[in-house]
Amino acid sequence: RYPRYDCNITVDFDIGDWSDGGVIKNISRGGGYIETHHPVTVSSEILLAVTSLDNWRNMTIKGTGVRRDANGIGVAFQSLSLYQQQVVQSYLKSELSKQVA
């Protein structure tokens, strides 16, 4: 639905009663793909801890696992606030400028 941009964003996430970390390998306004080898069930609620590019804004994004493969999980973001949209947009602008340069 939204264009995806390649990236390498370190992320911590919580699913149920366990926490793990991974790397967001691509991102869009609607979600992203997290590279992780920890088994994640599709339809699981996932809480992502994300830091903005300027390293002074931290936030949690709620998402849902929508697909799984051997290398990670696709996550659809749930109802982003304006603040969350701005942080995600900062990553999109950064990755778009790298691709254009």
Would you tell me the structural class of the helices and strands? Answer: alpha+beta
Mean pLDDT comes to 85
Summed up, the helix count is: 1
Q: How many strands in all?
A: 6
Helix content: 10-25%
What is the succession of H and E elements? Answer: EEEEEEH
Q: Would you identify the regions where 5 or more consecutive residues have pLDDT less than 50?
A: none
* Global Rg: 13 Å
Task: Give structural notes.
- The chain is of the alpha+beta class.
- It contains one helix and six strands, in the order ββββββα.
- The chain has one helix at 82-100, and strands spanning 5-15, 18-27, 31-35, 45-51, 58-69, 72-77.
- A six-stranded antiparallel barrel has the order 1-2-3-6-5-4.
- Strand 2 (18-27) and strand 3 form a beta hairpin.
- The longest helix is centred in the last third of the chain and has 19 residues, at 82-100.
- The radius of gyration is 13 Å and the shape is globular.
- The model has no long low-confidence stretch (mean pLDDT 85).
In short, what is this structure?
By secondary structure, the protein is of the alpha+beta class. Helix content is 19%, strand content 50%. The chain starts with a strand and ends with a helix.
